[in-house]
């Protein structure tokens, strides 16, 4: 793995393998500061090329083009009905564009059949607004669902389920039923389930909607850890500015004792692996960094940021 997503202000030794505990992989710990030549990283994780979509006379997407690079988080902002969640449905093959091309990991999936999309979806983890858990299944069986479908040996299933639940700090809830969980816990179980199979792309669709601020921050912290320690590429759909502040202002590292900690951007390095895209009426009205977004003189953008 490579970490070309940070511009380090001072040289730093790679984290040793012993610093990677059960919450992150050895390779992820090493990747925090390592730099190697990996040409595969020049291929975007996700790419939209002039994508159009209409429902009747209503334009949903009016010529959308963007890329999500390997290890990058793309925060997609916009009000209701601006086409944010539509992008996710197109990536998953649930909707087909009228024109344009969509690529996942360099693979043009635009015209794929449902059968062909199955292999593409193995690369993708999906985080739904409400967690979308099976109410009749325990936390264990919810997280294990994909593995059980694939008839994986139960010993391997349990190992993977526990590893994912440790990552979201919910191993103690492994035997609970969804009805016994708070809203935030349900979202975290949903994240654990999405991580099974080590997908290279994670799609977050309003993952903090309806959550209290501390719980919403916990969800954002998980997204940060995935970005910085697991090198996951992601799209984070939201309309909440607090999420943008967390995701663009902090990064995760493994300290000398093997603990995962969050640090503020600017103290030791400049964070460049998180970009923002804003949609309005099916078109991109902004694409860039959070600093440029806040400095924009566009009235709509300023109203969105400040709520007035």
Straight-line N-to-C gap:
44 Å
Low-confidence stretches: 1-24, 27-36
State the share of residues found in helices, binned by percent. Answer: 25-40%
Indicate the mean pLDDT: 85
Describe the strand arrangement of the main beta sheet, using strand numbers: 7-8-9-4-13-14
- The ordered string of helix (H) and strand (E) elements is EHEEEHEEHEHHHHEHEHEEEEEHH
Which structural class fits the helix and strand makeup? Answer: alpha/beta
User: Helical stretch count?
Assistant: 11
Could you list some keywords that capture this structure?
single chain, 308 residues, alpha/beta, 6-stranded mixed sheet, 4-stranded antiparallel sheet, 11 helices, 32% helix, disordered N terminus
Question: Describe it for me?
Answer:
The structure is a single chain. By secondary structure, the protein is of the alpha/beta class. Helix content is 32%, strand content 25%. The chain has eleven helices and 14 strands. It has helices at 26-31, 84-91, 114-121, 139-143, 145-149, 154-167, 183-195, 213-229, 241-249, 290-295, 299-306, and strands at residues 6-8, 46-55, 58-68, 73-77, 99-104, 107-108, 124-127, 201-205, 233-237, 250-254, 260-264, 269-271, 274-280, 283-288. The protein has a six-stranded mixed β-sheet, sandwiched between helices. Strands 3-2-5-6 form a four-stranded antiparallel β-sheet, with helices on one face. A hairpin with a 5-residue loop joins strand 10 and strand 11 (260-264). Mean pLDDT is 85; it is low at 1-24 and 27-36.
């Amino acid at each position: 793995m490579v970490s070309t997503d940070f511009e380090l202000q001072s040289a730093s030794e790679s984290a040793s393998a012993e610093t990677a505990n059960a919450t992150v992989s050895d390779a992820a710990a090493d990747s925090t500061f390592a730099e190697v030549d990996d040409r595969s990283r020049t291929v975007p994780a996700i790419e939209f090329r002039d994508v159009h979509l209409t429902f009747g006379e209503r334009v949903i997407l009016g010529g959308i083009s963007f890329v999500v690079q390997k290890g990058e988080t793309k925060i997609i902002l916009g009000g209701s009905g601006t086409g944010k969640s539509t992008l996710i449905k197109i990536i998953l093959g649930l909707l087909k564009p009228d024109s344009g091309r969509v690529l996942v990991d360099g693979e043009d999936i635009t015209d794929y059949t449902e059968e062909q999309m199955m292999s593409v979806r193995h690369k993708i983890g999906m985080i739904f607004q409400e967690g979308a858990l099976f109410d009749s299944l325990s936390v264990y069986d919810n997280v294990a669902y994909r593995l059980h479908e694939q008839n994986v040996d139960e010993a391997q299933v349990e190992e993977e389920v526990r590893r994912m639940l440790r990552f979201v700090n919910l191993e103690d809830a492994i035997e609970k039923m969804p009805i016994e969980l708070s809203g935030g816990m349900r979202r975290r179980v949903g994240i654990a389930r999405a991580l099974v199979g080590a997908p290279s792309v994670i799609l977050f669709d309003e993952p903090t909607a309806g959550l209290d601020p501390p719980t919403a921050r916990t969800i954002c912290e998980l997204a940060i850890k995935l970005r910085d320690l697991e090198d996951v590429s992601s799209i984070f759909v939201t309309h909440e500015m607090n999420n943008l502040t967390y995701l663009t202002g902090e990064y995760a590292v493994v300290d000398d004792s093997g603990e995962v900690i969050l640090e503020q951007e600017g103290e030791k390095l400049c964070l460049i692996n998180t970009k923002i895209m804003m949609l309005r009426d099916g078109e991109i009205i902004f694409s860039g960094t959070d600093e440029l977004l806040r400095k924009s003189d566009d009235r709509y953008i300023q109203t969105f940021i400040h709520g007035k």
